[in-house]
C-alpha cells in the first residue's frame, strides 16, 4: 500500500496508481476501477510503463512548481510553497539530502529514523561500498543482523581467479535484466564456454576463488539476510544461505555476476528488488541455464518432464528454467520482465 497513490489519503478518491522504484527506474502501474465498483468515480486507464528515476523526479519538480505558482498568494492551509522551499533547502545540504534518501529507502518518513539507525546504516554502507544497497537491505533486516552475517563469513578459498579483478563494462542505460544477460554472455565467451555449455561447480567456484567442495559443502547460514563474498587484503571471505547444492550454485553465480559488474568490498546476493539485485538474478539464470542451451535441449517441448530434465542437465532448480523460458520469450506463457527477469 505504501507504493500506491491511494495511501496518500486525504479523503480523495485517487486512481489505483502504483509507483515502485529499483533505484534506477520508476515502474508505474495504473489499474482501472472494477466495473462492478459502486464508487462515485471510476478510472478507466490501464497501463504499465517505466521511466528513469531522474526523469520522474524532474517531472515531479515541474509539477509542484506549477502548483505553487498556481496557488500564488491565495490562502493555502497546507503552506505548499513553504513546504517546497523546505524540500529544496534540504536538497542543497548534501548531508541532509543523503539522510533523507536513506530514510526513504528504509521506508521511514522524513526525520523519523532514529539517529542510531542512520549511523549504523551509513557505517555499513561505507564498509560495503554501496550505501543505497545497504539501506535497501536494512529495510528488511536489522543492521545488527547484516553486520553479524558479514562477520560470520569464513575464509576457505584459493586465490581468486585473475579475471574477477577485471570488471566487464556494461551499458548503464540498459535495464538491469538485459545488463545481466549481456554480462553472462560476455563472461561465457571470456571463459571459452559455448552458448549451450553447462557450467560445472569447479568452473563456477574458480570464478570466486573457491574450491568446488567448499562451494557445495560449506556451512550454510540460512538465517542470514544475504549470501556474501567479502573482499579483504588477508583473503576473501564467503557466506552462503542455501543448504541445497542447486540453490548454492545460484547464489554463487549471483556473486560472480556482481563481482564482474563492479569491484566492491562486499558482493552480496539478497532478496531485495534493487537494480543491482535484479541484474544479478538475470545474470545467474543466463549464466547457468543459457537461453540458447534451453532452446537446443527443449525444442518445442515445454512439458514438466522436459523442464525437469533441462534443469538437471544445467544443475539448476526447475523454477530457474521456467523463469528463463518466460523472461527470454521462449514460451507462450505471459511473462513479466519487470519483476521475473530480475
In short:
By secondary structure, this protein is mainly α. It is built from 14 helices and six strands.
Output the keywords:
single chain, 342 residues, mainly alpha, three-stranded antiparallel beta sheet, 14 helices, 6 strands, 9% strand, globular, disordered C terminus
Proportion of β residues? 5-15%
**Lateral arrangement of strands in the main beta sheet:** 1-2-3
The secondary-structure class comes to: mainly alpha
Average pLDDT over all residues: 88
End-to-end separation in angstroms reads 22 Å
Count the DSSP helices: 14
| C-alpha geometry | globular
Total number of strands: 6
- Along the chain, the helix and strand elements come as EEEHHHHHHHHHEEHEHHHH
Please estimate the helix content: 40-55%
Tell me about the biggest sheet?
Answer: 3 strands, antiparallel
Low-pLDDT regions? 334-342
Please indicate the count of domains. 3
Whole-angstrom Rg:
23 Å
Question: How would you sum up this structure, described in words?
Answer:
The protein has 342 residues and is mainly α. Helices cover 48% and strands 9% of the residues. It has 3 domains: 1-73, no CATH class; 92-139, no CATH class; 151-288, no CATH class. It has helices at residues 53-71, 80-92, 94-106, 115-128, 131-137, 143-152, 176-190, 201-208, 212-217, 245-261, 275-288, 291-298, 304-314, 318-327; strands at residues 16-21, 25-31, 47-52, 226-230, 237-239, 266-270. A 3-stranded antiparallel β-sheet has the order 1-2-3.
Amino acid at each position: 500500500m505504501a507504493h500506491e497513490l491511494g495511501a496518500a489519503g486525504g479523503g480523495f478518491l485517487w486512481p489505483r496508481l502504483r509507483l515502485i522504484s529499483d533505484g534506477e527506474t520508476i515502474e508505474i502501474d495504473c489499474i482501472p476501477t472494477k466495473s462492478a465498483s459502486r464508487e462515485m468515480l471510476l478510472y478507466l486507464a490501464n497501463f504499465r510503463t517505466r521511466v528513469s528515476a531522474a526523469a520522474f523526479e524532474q517531472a515531479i519538480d515541474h509539477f509542484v512548481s506549477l502548483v505553487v505558482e498556481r496557488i500564488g498568494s491565495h490562502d493555502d492551509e497546507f503552506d505548499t510553497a513553504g513546504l517546497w522551499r523546505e524540500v529544496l533547502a534540504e536538497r542543497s545540504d548534501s548531508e541532509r539530502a543523503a539522510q533523507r534518501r536513506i530514510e526513504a529507502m528504509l521506508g521511514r518518513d522524513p526525520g523519523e529514523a532514529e539517529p542510531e539507525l542512520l549511523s549504523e546504516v551509513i557505517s555499513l554502507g561505507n564498509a560495503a561500498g554501496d550505501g543505497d544497497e545497504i539501506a535497501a537491505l536494512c529495510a528488511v533486516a536489522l543492521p545488527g543482523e547484516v553486520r553479524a552475517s558479514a562477520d560470520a563469513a569464513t575464509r576457505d578459498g584459493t586465490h581468486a581467479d585473475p579475471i574477477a579483478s577485471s570488471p566487464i563494462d556494461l551499458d548503464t542505460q540498459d535495464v538491469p535484466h538485459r545488463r545481466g544477460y549481456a554480462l553472462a554472455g560476455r563472461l561465457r565467451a571470456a571463459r571459452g564456454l559455448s552458448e549451450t555449455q553447462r557450467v560445472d561447480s569447479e568452473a563456477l567456484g574458480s570464478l570466486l576463488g573457491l574450491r568446488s567442495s567448499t562451494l557445495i559443502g560449506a556451512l550454510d547460514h540460512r538465517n542470514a539476510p544475504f549470501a556474501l563474498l567479502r573482499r579483504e587484503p588477508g583473503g576473501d571471505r564467503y557466506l552462503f544461505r542455501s543448504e541445497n547444492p542447486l540453490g548454492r550454485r545460484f547464489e554463487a553465480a549471483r556473486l560472480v555476476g556482481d563481482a564482474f559488474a563492479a569491484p566492491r568490498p562486499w558482493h552480496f546476493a539478497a532478496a531485495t528488488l534493487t537494480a543491482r539485485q535484479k541484474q544479478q538474478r538475470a545474470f545467474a539464470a543466463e549464466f547457468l541455464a543459457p537461453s540458447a542451451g534451453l532452446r537446443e535441449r527443449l525444442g518445442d517441448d515445454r512439458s514438466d518432464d522436459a523442464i525437469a530434465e533441462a534443469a538437471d542437465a544445467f544443475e539448476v532448480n526447475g523454477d530457474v528454467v521456467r523463469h528463463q523460458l518466460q523472461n527470454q520469450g521462449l514460451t507462450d506463457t505471459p511473462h513479466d520482465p519487470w519483476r521475473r527477469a530480475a
